[in-house]
Amino acid sequence: MALWTENSIIEKARRLLPGGEFLVDDCGLLALESRQRLIISTDSMQEGTHFNLNWHPPRLLARKLLNVNLSDIDASGGVPLGFTFNFGLSPDIAEGWIDTFLESLGDCARGHAIKVFGGDTFRSSQGLHLTATVLGRVDRHLTRSGIKMGDSIYIDGQLGLSHEGLCALRSGERWNDQNISPALSQHLDPRINIGLGVALAQIPEVHACMDLSDGLSKDLAILAEINQTTIRMARSFIDSELHGGEDYLRLFASSLTLEELSKRFPFGFERIAQVEAFQGSFLIDSLGQRIENHTFNHF
What's the CATH number where 270 sits? Predict the structure, then answer.
């Protein structure tokens, strides 16, 4: 039987999370300048569906929970302002695990200069449940709409690395602070170019942007469908690159060349596709064959 209580968890949050000292009311206050626009991202993680406690250390899970929401805000061109956090705990979660998780969540929030301003705690009979909602401000809002004929599609990192890490975990490999593989690190503790989306939003030749998280074959097809275009891949891709999820890259459309982008940013961009007039399929390979979606099914 758990030794912690709802009140003790709330007290921990007040002590360990930046802004926690103000968690005394049912509603939190977020002050905005009159001309600012608010954007919101929320993500839930359920034990057994999105993570496995046997291989996901609490300090890494906390960072991932917050960072995947920050990734959505950033890909929209936004700057984060604060977050809410819902904590669904099963009775067998140890108090030390909770302390480590909240300490890491607080450190991650402070690293991005944001504070918590609300949330909820509850008993979860179906394993650990985590939800974070991040609010941000935006000047130019980058969306999935607006790509133009002839645009190139770019990403800012390596595809499929998180999926490779998941496969390694399923095969028995585990996190080791002294010997961390890039694939394992990307899955358990993803590194995201937070701030790149804000910079891209300042470039008129960047026409659309999104967070690549569900897998390339799904997210690119959605991008093409929203814009009623065909997107043709620039090269052949292996399955982990096409269908592996949780890459958390900036996926954006621009009329700029790769050389022009590389002069502006220190990231290893890759041009992965080209926008063409609709040809009967939203996403096709370099030879014109339709690409099917084989990404993770959340249901």
Answer: 3.90.650.10
